[in-house]
Write a structure and sequence with these properties.
Layout (H helix, E strand, L loop, with lengths): L6 H7 L3 E2 L4 H7 L8 H4 L1 H13 L14 H6 L9 E2 L6 E4 L2 E4 L3 H13 L4 E2 L7 H12 L9
Parallel strand pairs: 1-5, 2-5
Antiparallel strand pairs: 3-4
Length: 152
C-alpha cells in the first residue's frame, strides 16, 4: 500500500523539489506547436513527455505555466505565500533556420540551478530549451544535497 501526502507536506519534508523541464520545447520536438491546446488535442504526446520526466525522478510535473510567476501574481492581486521556484531557460534564445534554439549545455544549466538553490530556491526545474538530460543533471545535484558535480 502506498502512503500518500499532500503537496504542502511534501514541500516541508523535502529540502529541494525537482520540477520537470521545458514542456513546450519537448512538444515542439514531437512536431507539435507550443501551447496549452496540446493537452486536449494531443494528450498521449503530453503524457509521453511527462512520463520521460517522471522516469528521471522529477517530483512535480508542470504544464502551461508561462504566466504564473511572482510578478504576474503581484500585478494581478494574487496574494499567496509561495516557495521560491526556479525554472529557467536553457540559455538565451536565438533564431536559427526559422526556429528558436537554446544552446546552454546540461552541465552549465545545472550550475545555474545550483546558484538558484544557493539563493533560496527550493523547487527547481527547467523551461524553454531544456531536455531530460538538463533535468537529470539537476536531479544529481538534488540527490547530493546540492554538493554534486553538475557536469556528471
Amino acid at each position: 500500500m502506498t502512503k500518500s501526502m499532500t503537496l504542502s507536506d511534501f514541500i516541508v519534508k523535502e529540502p529541494y523539489i525537482l520540477l520537470d523541464g521545458a514542456m513546450g520545447t519537448q512538444l515542439e520536438a514531437e512536431g507539435l506547436i507550443m501551447g496549452g491546446q496540446n493537452c486536449v488535442t494531443h494528450p498521449d504526446t503530453v503524457l509521453s513527455v511527462h512520463r520521460r520526466y517522471a522516469g528521471i525522478g522529477c517530483h512535480v510535473l508542470t504544464s502551461n505555466t508561462l504566466t504564473m510567476n511572482r510578478l504576474y501574481m503581484e500585478t494581478h492581486g494574487v496574494d499567496a505565500d509561495v516557495p521560491l521556484i526556479a525554472q529557467p531557460n536553457a540559455g538565451k534564445p536565438r533564431l536559427a533556420g526559422g526556429r528558436t534554439v537554446f544552446d546552454m549545455d546540461p552541465g552549465a544549466f545545472a550550475e545555474g540551478i545550483l546558484e538558484c538553490m544557493e539563493a533560496g530556491a527550493t523547487m527547481v526545474g527547467g523551461c524553454c530549451g531544456t531536455t531530460s538530460e538538463h533535468i537529470r543533471r539537476v536531479a544529481v545535484l538534488i540527490e547530493s544535497g546540492g554538493k554534486g558535480s553538475p557536469s556528471s
